[in-house]
Amino acid sequence: FHSGEREEKCIIEDVPTDTLVIGNYKVQRWDIHKQEFLESAPGLGMFVTVTTPSAEVLLSKLYGPQGTFSFTSHLSGEHIICLQSNSTRFVAFAGSKLRIHLDIRVGEHFLDESVVRAKDKVNEVNFRLEHLIEQVHHISKEQNYEREREEKFRKTSEETNSNILWWAIVQTLILISIGIWQIKSLRDFFISKKLV
């Protein structure tokens, strides 16, 4: 995505409890003379802030123009990941465009192939099996989290439907009451004017 030099960009990531989140990013600065993005942005860093669903700051750190950040969620829900350059220019002069490449991996633990090659075949199979078991646990945890969210959504929908029903009943009673009052008032008016 593209961003201004002093502009903060935020991404919302829905993460279950106790899940590792790894983010890789790279910043490229726009070169006015070449009319293209430079391969790197020397001297420019990124300030990464991660906020939990309860508005608690989980990570707040300054990184270089290219880097990796990671955090483990303590609460399930929408985590807000914000990136902002550490440019020291004033806002009026910070007109340079930035291109940010961001890759976020939720709950993944990657195999280090060099470690796998270094071990013998039995250990390699064992290592891969442990990795698969870990992925199965993560998938199970993700499914449980989605079930919780679905149940919460269903309860909210049922409560809303119940409230709508009661509101319709109250509106009907109010309309009937007003109608009866209007009929009685008109009848009393016509009787007092001796039109009936």
TrEMBL record:
Keywords: Endoplasmic reticulum, Membrane, Signal, Transmembrane, Transmembrane helix. Residues 8-106 form the GOLD domain. It holds the Pfam family EMP24_GP25L. InterPro entries: Emp24-like, GOLD_dom. It is a single-pass type I membrane protein. Its main location: endoplasmic reticulum. The chain crosses the membrane at residues 164-183. GO terms for cellular component: endoplasmic reticulum membrane. It is found in: Endoplasmic reticulum membrane; Membrane. Belongs to the EMP24/GP25L family. PANTHER family: TRANSMEMBRANE EMP24 DOMAIN-CONTAINING PROTEIN. This is TMD11 protein. It comes from Stercorarius parasiticus (Parasitic jaeger).
